[in-house]
């Protein structure tokens, strides 16, 4: 009897799973497989917190597959070796999986698997599970194509699978077995489909009402944001089921004046942004390692200032709100989007660190690390795309704006307990600062205003070089969003001409 290997990657569910349905519809037996790849988990953008979340999702998936009659095989090893071993043991004629927009390592692995499969005469069928389009010719019409996918009916899970006799469910290894670095994350979200469904329900029925207003606050956003990102990243929920559930809730609250309509509209737009940014990495995989606009190569030192990098990583820059955000991220594995952007911008502009030096560390800290979002955002918030508005966040102003009571900052920086509220975000202005700074809490590693000015001069110096606009036009044509039929921008947008000085920077966001 022919065997189809159903290769699970970042799609750890059975609901709305096109690859599962495709495998089940064929003849022969289905062998569900997850490969724990030591080479992947040795990368600098992976971490124990990510693995533990993944392992929890695998446990839930395993239970679902046992119920369907085909236990999940969990194999430790590199993909080609594992697949080759399984093909030697069983008459494997086909591999079915979803398309993956991952980092450079997974891209190279997939190419190696494709070569191996052709050599063994095994078909490999890859199917889409989101609005990201492989081998996209151009962005024109992309948003409409994505919308059609998201509005299509969800794929029903089969009632049963024809499993292989004698197979038993595999057990995921422990983080220590993968030699992952010690990574305590006591506030980490739990994985598994049940946890994801609970979050989706509570967001659409209670927590999400204040989403639009509260999502910029690291404290209020921790509750008002959906917190679905790790479940979408690892696929315990499909993006389509989240989007369709949100659309149903939007219809139910249409016309209400209680905040729900606006909040769910904002959330829907951010679900679309996810695919938009992932499409960038799908179209140009090198942007994980190269500036999207080549003129920015060499703008910042390739070798980072070690002291500044370490201070930023530990949450010890002497900039209270920045440090509070970093320490919160270290403890929980999550941070709201605006504060993620601020952490990157401060590192890139004020500390003048290259995004390739800071990106892997942030990726490790994010339980919801999604390469297709992470690397385009690292470049966008570092100003190296050549097409997006340059935002140099003022970290002091962000503290006053997003943590006006100081409750968030005080929670994560107990060493500032004696600092009066009026000086919490600028303790160097407090008369008691001399007995605090440099002792129990570090003095600022940079002068915020002076660092911003220097960054502005350097960045705009690049934009004024001859030929900059020609390459920027190429980037915009390939990656920028388009307008829909109503003339509205879909997802993010290319920069619009400003009135007055075209070189104006937005410093106080």
TrEMBL record:
Keywords (alphabetical) are: FAD, Flavoprotein, Lyase
Which molecular function terms from Gene Ontology are attached? deoxyribodipyrimidine photo-lyase activity; DNA binding; FAD binding
The protein's matches in SUPFAM superfamilies, at most eight in alphabetical order, are given as:
Cryptochrome/photolyase FAD-binding domain (SSF48173), Cryptochrome/photolyase, N-terminal domain (SSF52425)
InterPro entries documented for this protein: Crypto/Photolyase_FAD-like_sf, Crypto/Photolyase_N_sf, Cryptochr/Photolyase_FAD-bd, Cryptochrome/DNA_photolyase_1, DNA_photolyase_N, Rossmann-like_a/b/a_fold
Q: Which residues bind FAD?
A: 211, 267
> One biological-process term from Gene Ontology?
response to light stimulus
Requisite cofactors: (6R)-5,10-methylene-5,6,7,8-tetrahydrofolate; FAD
Name this protein carries in UniProt: Deoxyribodipyrimidine photo-lyase family protein (Cryptochrome)
Q: Which organism is it from?
A: Rhodovulum adriaticum (Rhodopseudomonas adriatica)
């Amino acid at each position: 009897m022919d065997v189809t290997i159903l290769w699970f990657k970042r799609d750890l569910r059975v609901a709305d799973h096109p690859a599962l349905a495709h495998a089940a519809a064929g003849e022969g037996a289905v062998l569900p497989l997850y490969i724990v790849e030591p080479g992947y988990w040795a990368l600098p953008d992976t971490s124990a917190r990510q693995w533990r979340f993944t392992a929890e999702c695998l446990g839930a998936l395993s239970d679902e597959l046992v119920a369907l009659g085909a236990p999940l095989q969990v194999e430790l090893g590199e993909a080609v070796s594992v697949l080759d071993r399984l093909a030697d043991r069983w008459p494997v004629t086909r591999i079915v999986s979803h398309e993956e927009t991952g980092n450079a390592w997974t891209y190279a692995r997939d190419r190696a698997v494709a070569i191996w499969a052709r050599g063994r005469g095994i078909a490999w069928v890859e199917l889409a599970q989101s609005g990201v389009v492989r081998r996209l010719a151009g962005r024109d019409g992309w948003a409409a194509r994505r919308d059609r996918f998201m509005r299509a009916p969800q794929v029903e899970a089969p009632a049963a699978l024809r499993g292989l006799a004698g197979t038993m469910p595999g057990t995921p290894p422990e983080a220590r077995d993968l030699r992952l670095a010690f990574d305590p994350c006591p506030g980490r979200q739990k994985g598994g489909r049940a946890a994801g469904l609970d979050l989706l329900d509570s967001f659409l029925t209670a927590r999400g009402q204040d989403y639009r207003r509260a999502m910029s606050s690291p404290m209020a956003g921790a509750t008002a944001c959906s917190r679905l990102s790790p479940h979408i990243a690892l696929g315990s929920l499909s993006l389509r089921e989240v989007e369709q559930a949100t659309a149903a809730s939007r219809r139910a609250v249409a016309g209400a004046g209680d905040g729900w309509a606006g909040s769910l509209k904002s959330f829907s737009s951010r679900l679309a942004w996810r695919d938009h940014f992932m499409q960038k990495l799908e179209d140009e995989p090198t942007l994980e390692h190269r500036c999207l606009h080549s003129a920015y190569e060499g703008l910042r030192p390739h070798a980072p200032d070690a002291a500044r990098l370490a201070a930023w990583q530990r949450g010890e820059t002497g900039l209270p709100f920045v440090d509070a955000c970093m320490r919160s991220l270290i403890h929980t594995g999550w941070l709201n989007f605006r504060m993620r952007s601020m952490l990157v911008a401060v590192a890139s502009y004020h500390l003048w660190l290259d995004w390739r030096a800071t990106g892997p560390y942030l990726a490790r800290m994010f339980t919801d690390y999604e390469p297709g979002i992470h690397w385009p955002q690292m470049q966008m918030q570092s100003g190296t795309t050549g097409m997006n508005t340059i935002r140099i966040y003022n970290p002091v102003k962000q503290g006053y704006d997003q943590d006006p009571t100081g409750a968030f900052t005080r929670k994560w920086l107990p060493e500032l307990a004696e600092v009066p509220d009026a000086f919490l975000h600028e303790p160097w202005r407090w008369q008691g600062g001399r007995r605090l700074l440099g002792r129990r809490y570090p003095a600022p590693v940079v002068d915020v205003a002076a660092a911003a000015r220097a960054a502005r001069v350097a960045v705009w110096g690049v934009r004024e070089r001859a030929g900059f606009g020609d390459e920027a036009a190429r980037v915009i044509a390939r990656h920028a969003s388009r307008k829909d039929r109503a003339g509205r921008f879909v997802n993010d947008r290319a920069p619009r001409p400003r009135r007055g000085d075209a070189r104006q920077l937005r410093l106080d966001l």
